[in-house]
TrEMBL record:
Residues 1-29 form the signal peptide. This is Ricin B lectin domain-containing protein. The keyword Signal applies. SUPFAM superfamilies: Ricin B-like lectins. Gene3D superfamilies: 2.80.10.50. Keywords: Signal.
Length: 174
């Protein structure tokens, strides 16, 4: 009987101590909080077509073309906007690859973030974050602009065409 009381008291003390310690630690210091959702994520929507940017067939493979679609479901249409003072990278939530333009006039593709052709200059970052139309110029490809071209996106000479304006729409819940 004494042994059982001692074990019960020890268990109660351990539970109280654990509760006191976990309530004293801020939530951001716990491993679970550190692994929380990495959002926010955005749809990159062409101002002319109203379609969202995504990898062809929701592919996770490097080198796959970027297309536009009316489909706004799933992680393949969600993009993380990674900005620095000098450039912006557009990272796909599904593939973890970045929007890339390697060839002038060529199809845009997804490639490993940081590889040549994945760094962009945004015409106006304040407008971008406000969800207003902006242009994305590729810093490593003679300032070619992201352009909607039918169902695909290409890197073409920046001429201010409506097909070269994109806006960010925040994905709800991210």
């Amino acid at each position: 009987m004494r042994k059982r009381l001692a074990l019960t008291a020890t268990a109660a003390m351990a539970a109280a101590l654990t509760s006191a310690l976990t309530s004293a630690v801020p939530a951001q210091a716990t491993p679970q909080a550190a692994a929380a959702a990495p959002g926010p994520f955005y749809w990159i929507v062409n101002n002319d077509t109203g379609k969202a940017l995504l990898p062809y067939q929701h592919s996770k493979d490097s080198g796959q073309p970027l297309i536009q679609s009316n489909e706004f479901n799933g992680g393949a249409t969600h993009w993380k906007i990674r900005t620095t003072p000098n450039d912006t990278m557009l990272e796909n939530r599904h593939s973890h690859l970045c929007a890339n333009a390697l060839v002038a006039g060529g199809l845009m593709r997804q490639e490993y973030c940081g590889s040549p052709g994945t760094k962009w200059w945004v015409s106006n970052t304040s407008d971008m974050w406000a969800g207003r139309p902006v242009t994305f110029r590729n810093l490593q490809l003679n300032n070619q602009c992201m352009t909607a071209f039918g169902a695909v996106t290409k890197a073409t000479t920046c001429i201010g065409a409506t097909t070269q304006y994109f806006r960010l729409v925040r994905v709800p819940g991210t």
